[in-house]
Design a protein that fits this description.
- By secondary structure, this protein is mostly helical.
- The protein has a single domain, classed as Proton glutamate symport protein.
- It is built from 15 helices and no strands.
- Helix 2 crosses helix 14, helix 10 packs antiparallel against helix 15 and helix 12 packs antiparallel against helix 13.
- The longest helix is centred in the first third of the chain and has 33 residues.
């Protein structure tokens, strides 16, 4: 998928994205029915996401050969998640303090505080469901990833007896990646349907801009923060810690970035992300399988930045 033909596919996805914006502007809500194209594409990605995550994680662990390596990768991944999430919160808070979007916003229309009775222990218990098939049907990636980690670790521990299972899972992984290649040929139409359907359902671009203007200052803070993350922070980390050229790496991730932009779902985009990381950017499949699924489930830098900015915004608005 990532030869010259793959480049044509990326161009086609970009065209689908542009048409998805332009067509609702020209025809309004009349294009709402095309949303089914996006729904089919999104569902197809979700269809293979869970089995691909299961197989990829199991293969990643068994290919490591030693569980000690898994622990080291896990600690590094957790440290990266925590450090970059904390940095995102600080960026959001700093920008909100600098630009002060909440000054003059007032308390009108602001909801009162809500108490949510959901503790960390509740969340922890929820990650260990009594039925793995229930987690699969509910598309809960973190419990699925934890099950795959455990299953892959056990296959490593039992040694030669687990090799037949590993062979089957390896074949399944190859088959699922081939399915992904086929699904991606539908991506231009899928992206068009997703974008056009969402804009039409929202009432068109005029409605979008009017709603954006209603929260203008705060939205600007968040957008600037996300821009800093995407253009400055993450490329610097990639360059100095990963040893990769950020521009080339972003180019290799173009299919995943466009799919994520259209679908607004990191979980649904996960199969495309894994394919881009491994095939286009030459990242070890073991690292991809062990890091990306948990990241799709719990790693939300943009949300962390939003929360940091929102906390300062609310304090400013309430005086």
């Amino acid at each position: 998928m990532y030869d010259r033909t793959g480049n044509y596919l990326i161009v086609a996805i970009v065209i689908g994205l542009i048409l998805g914006i332009a067509v609702p502007v020209l025809f309004g809500n009349g294009v709402l029915p095309v949303k089914f194209l996006g729904d089919i594409f999104l569902n197809a990605l979700k269809l293979i996401a869970v089995p691909l995550v299961l197989c990829a994680i199991v293969m990643g662990i068994t290919n490591l050969g030693a569980l000690g390596k898994l622990g080291r990768i896990g600690l590094k991944t957790l440290a990266y998640f925590l450090a970059t999430a904390a940095l995102a919160v600080l960026i959001g808070m700093a920008l909100a303090n600098l630009l002060q979007p909440g000054i003059g916003a007032g308390k009108a229309g602001m909801p009162g505080p809500q108490v949510i009775s959901y503790s960390f222990l509740d969340w922890l218990v929820a990650q260990c469901p009594p039925n793995i098939f229930a987690a699969i049907s509910e598309f809960r990636l973190l419990p699925i990833a934890l099950f795959a980690f455990l299953f892959g670790s056990v296959l490593t521990l039992i040694g030669p007896k687990g090799k037949p299972v590993v062979t089957v899972i390896e074949s399944l992984t190859e088959a699922l990646m081939k399915m992904l290649h086929l699904i991606m040929w539908f991506a231009p139409l899928g992206v068009f349907g997703l974008v056009a359907g969402q804009i039409a359902a929202a009432g068109g671009l005029d409605r979008f801009w009017s709603e954006l203007g209603a929260v203008g200052g705060f939205a600007m803070v968040v957008l600037i923060g996300l821009g800093l993350q995407a253009i400055v922070v993450l490329p610097l980390i990639l360059k100095f810690l990963g040893g990769k050229n950020p521009v080339e790496y972003a180019g290799g991730m173009s299919s995943a970035l466009l799919t994520g932009l259209a679908s607004a779902s990191s979980a649904a985009t996960l199969p495309v992300t894994m394919e881009c990381v491994e095939s286009k950017n030459d990242i070890d499949k073991r690292a991809s399988a062990l890091v990306l699924p948990p990241a799709a489930a719990i790693y939300f830098n943009g949300t962390a930045l939003f929360i940091g900015a929102a906390a300062i915004f609310i304090l400013q608005a309430q005086g």
